[in-house]
Every structure is written in C-alpha cells, then in structure tokens.
Amino acid sequence: MKRRGLLFYVRLYCKILAQDLKSKMSYRADFIISTIGMICTNIAGFVSFWIMFRNFSSINGWGYYEMLFLYGFSLVSLTPAQCFCDNNWSLRQYVYTGDFIKYCFRPINLFFYYQSEVFDIKGLGQLAFGLGTIIYSWIKLGLGFTPLMAVKMIVFLITASLVMIALQTAAAATCFWIQNSFYVLDLAFRFKDYAKYPITIFSSVFRFIFTFLLPIAFIAYYPSMVILRPDEVPLLSWLSPLIGIAFFYIAYRIWMYGAMKYNGTGS
C-alpha cells in the first residue's frame, strides 16, 4: 500500500469533516439540545466546586481558583478525545457484527479511516466552557501572560489530550479480544473524573496508579503545574509531553494490532 503523507490526511480529514458537519447541521435542534446539555453538565461541575469551597478554603494546599484552573484544563484536554475519537464507543458493535471488515479494504491508515467517520460537534461546547474557566481562573490567580506561557499552554494542552485519547483508544481496542469490552471502555472513561483533582490529595497507592499505570495525572495536574506553580514544577511535569506521545503511540499500536488481526465475525 502506498504510504500517505501528513498533508494528504489533513486534506482528506477536512473533506470528511465538512460532509459530517453538513449531515449533523441538518438536525439543528438535536445539535442545539446536545450542546446545551453539555454546557449544563459542566456548569453543574463548576457549581459543585463552588459549594465545596464554601466550606473549605483549600484542599491540601490547593485553593479554589487553582482547582478551578485544573478543572478547566481537564475539560479542554478531554475535548479532542470526545470530538475526534467518539467512534471508539461504536467499535465493539462493528467488530461483533462483522461490519468492521469494510474498513480493512481502503488504501489509507485504518485507524484514521475509522476515527474520521465521526466528529462529535457538541464537544465544542465543552471546549468553550473549559477555555472560559481557564481564562477566568487565570485572571483571578493573577498569573500574567507572555508569549512563552501561551506556547507552554498550547503544547501541554495538546500532549495532555493525547493521554485521554490513548486511554480511550486502548480500552476500546479490547473489543478485539474481550466480548464484554464495553465495561472496560466505560471504566476508563469514568477515570477522567479524577483528572480534575491534584494528585497530592490521593494516597500514595493511588498516586502511583494515576501516574504510572493509568496516567490520568498527566491530563491536568502535571502539565498545569508548569503554569500554576512554576517555582515548584516536578520533573514529571516537564516530561508530560513525552509521556503523552509515548502513551498514545502504545495505545495506537494496540488498536492497530487488534484491527490487523481482525478477520470478521467471531474473531
């Protein structure tokens, strides 16, 4: 099969995305209701933080606006997984029915072909709310702003998002070997709720798990430390871009290995 360059896939994805958005916008009421629902869910999370901090001025040394920054950072980091990889939730159905075989006969990357079919546009509501939360807490914390800080934010947000994409992708890929893989994917998805908290509030056992086994601490905590507390940045914070890339590559290889071994219903 002829190897395709990055530019080819970018152009192809733009064409696929344009068609997908046209299809979704034909049902505008569904889009509007879904977006409002997503925003309301995130507002509920915001309110829960406010209620919690009415009784506690800080949690293990973390103030309200710092926690709010982590919350917004996690929302933005989680958005790419929701927008670009939402089709992972349907993977087990395609595998069990045998319909996944259709993806194996196109002369393009199998992972790209499958994921590009679906773009969850309502995730953009989460992105907007997350960015608003970051900006609000940024101002309240008086962090200041420089071009270097902007570059750091972009780099660490992108690489942090790779962790959630990787976690979801690896969990979804278990359907190539496990019949009830939904529970694996659902469990991996639920772990994202812990990403919005500083890892220091957990016991040493969970710190180890959330750092080295299920690295959700790299979705918000470690990358955020570079912005929030530049004078006490741990080494893992600076390594988080490399860890995000490495974790995504491993998950991608797992997904591709399962897909290449797939040979139809009953595989």
Number of helices: 11
| Total E-strand runs | 2
The first-to-last residue Cα distance is 24 Å
Biggest sheet, strands in spatial order? 1-2
The Rg value, from CA coordinates, equals 20 Å
Strand content: under 5%
H/E element string? HHEEHHHHHHHHH
Structural class: mainly alpha
User: What profile does the largest beta sheet have?
Assistant: 2 strands, antiparallel
Low-confidence stretches: none
Helix content: 55-70%
Mean pLDDT: 87
User: How does the overall form come out from the CA principal axes?
Assistant: globular
Give an account of the 3D structure.
This protein is mostly helical and 267 residues long. The radius of gyration is 20 Å and the shape is globular. The chain contains eleven helices and two strands; from the N terminus they run ααββααααααααα. A two-stranded antiparallel ribbon has the order 1-2. Strand 1 and strand 2 (62-63) form a beta hairpin. The mean pLDDT is 87.
Descriptors:
11 helices; two-stranded antiparallel ribbon; 68% helix; 267 residues; mainly alpha
